[in-house]
Amino acid sequence: MANKGNKKRRQFSLEEKMKVVEAVDSGKRKGDVAKEFGITPSTLSTFLKDRAKFEEKVREASVGPQRKRMRNALYDDIDKAVFAWFQEIHAKNILVTGSVIRKKALNLANMLGYDNFQASVGWLNRFRDRHGIALKAVCREDSDRLMNGLGIDKVNEWHAGEIIKLIADYSPDDIFNADETGVFFQLLPQHTLAAKGDHCRGGKKAKQRLTALFCCNASGTEKMRPLIVGRSANPHCLKNVHSLPCDYRANQWAWMTQDLFNEWLMQVDARMKRAERRILLLIDNCSAHNTLPRLERIQVGYLPSNCTAVLQPLNLGIIHTMKVLYRSHLLKQILLKLHSSEDQEVDIRQAIDMIAAAWWSVKQSTVVRCWQKAGIIPVELADSDAEAASSESEVAIEKLWRSVALATCVPSEINFQDFVTADDDLIISQELIDTEIIPGMEAGENTDEAGSEEEGEASLLQQPKITITEAISSVQKLRQFLSTCVGVPDAVFGQLNGIDEYLMRKVTQTLVDSKITDFLQTK
């Protein structure tokens, strides 16, 4: 009896508990699972009952996976504030010591109004255990090397080691890269100089910007739907709009946030699960990417910090090509409106359509070339036909630029490339500072609050709703117009046929459904 009373009670880490739950989910009998992990049926039932808590902790990364207890800190708001700061610092690959964390904790505690808080060594150890943080001693030389940038040595090391391991089990079709970029969607050529180098942390220009997330695979065979983040949740131009060529979300600053990125990740993961695929996703370590949800079908690989300019395929020409195509679409719109004396500005709906059209128009050869430039897939012979077509396109765009620039009095020192790259320096995700961390602890996170529907839309008229009959009539008019043109490609007529078939199916189904409804109402 004495031995039984002194028997030490076993404690399970969060990781071990999740393994038990996953074993039951895989279809194993509960009795067999209990025997396999050496637990009683009542303990198993407790794990299953608390699974929602475990999953939430894993998803939010608020505790380390080896953590065995989930008690909250005594000063919970200080703990959350310090951890939010630590995540931001960690994402930038900046090394911090325990003393630095203690000093930051005292600073944040003072801002929160706590005078008696002691950032003791004991508090630091408990903070580390709560969040699964390992602090390592680093010699001065290594610290200086990391703080000053890892340079070419880090790039070569990644090419020779880590990336080979990451891609070993995946084909180019299943290796993806995702990245965000900012877009001044209403930028006119004559305002290029004023926008150049603007980070746009807020103010009036925040209403004129979007953040776009793009994702494509290494073979160039698959480009995912873009995710566009705006400032207005319900702009007038999207009223009665139920289908877009992208996903649209909104928040106060039109930035990418952890919540939005994780929502997108979960949707991709679910899609891959339905398709029974497993993919590798390469991303940078910006603040929106540093706390990921639990994923089943996506393995995430982080690109080395300070090296994305030479290692991230989307940064090596894919996003730039999209912007070239978007700006050329915008120039064509401006040229047409100049002749009709219309307002040159575009609304969010038009911008979304043009961004999506530009993205889908990026050629497979361009995508593959950028992945090769990143050193992730082997370099093959260049496609001379694609390069010749690209050269012809550049000449046509340059002519278009000169026409618009002349008509809108653009300064002679501004060229088309300046117009394309004017928003390259836009901030695409929130960068936390102490004064932004504290309001989040006191009043809850507010970065996902969107602007009102009127903001940025006041000068743009609401578009009237188009009926399906009017849409079909427009397709017929397009047919008549194209029949008068010379040399129209067959593909254009094919696309028009596809639109026509879709509209006819829709109107036929509507008529059939209404007849059935009428019949049921008479019974």
UniProtKB/TrEMBL annotation:
Residues 66-137 form the HTH CENPB-type domain. SMART domains: CENPB (SM00674). Residues 3-54 form the HTH psq-type domain. SUPFAM superfamilies: Homeodomain-like. The keyword Coiled coil does not apply. GO terms for cellular component: nucleus. This is Tigger transposable element derived 6. It comes from Ursus maritimus. The gene is TIGD6.
